[in-house]
Amino acid sequence: MPDAAEASEVLHLTLGGVSVTGFVTPAELTAIDSGAAVDVVMRRVVAVHQDVGEDVPLGDVACTFIGGEPSPFVPE
Predict the structure, then answer these.
(1) Among 13, 16, 34, 39, which is disulfide-ready with 75 (CB 3.0 to 4.6 Å)?
(2) Which DSSP category does 72 fall into?
(3) What is the mean pLDDT of residues 20-31?
(4) Whole-number pLDDT of residue 52
């Protein structure tokens, strides 16, 4: 697993009414952008619900991307 210090690329997603921002490594971002099925760990994740507007720090979150989009599948 890559070191947390290597996670320098910002990744921002909007899932329903929730905005999620975190960091991935350059290699993880390249894999996500390629459309490959890839498991990554987003680092220093913060979520904000549009109706609440308050930052909720989630820490490190494991997630899967397929076709450049977040997947409902749980990483292995």
Answers:
(1) 39
(2) S
(3) 96
(4) 86
CA–CA dist 48, 57 (Å, integer) = 9
Task: Please name the residue ranges forming H helices in 1-76.
Answer: 26-34
Taking the CA atoms of residue 44, residue 9, residue 36 and residue 19 in that order, the dihedral angle to the nearest 10 degrees is 50
For tokens 């292995």, the residue is 76
Tell me how crowded residue 76 is: count the other CB atoms within 10 A of its CB: 6
Q: Higher pLDDT residue, 30 or 75?
A: 30
Question: How many Å from the N-terminal Cα to the C-terminal Cα in the chain?
Answer: 13
- Cα 35 to Cα 65: distance, rounded to the nearest angstrom: 8
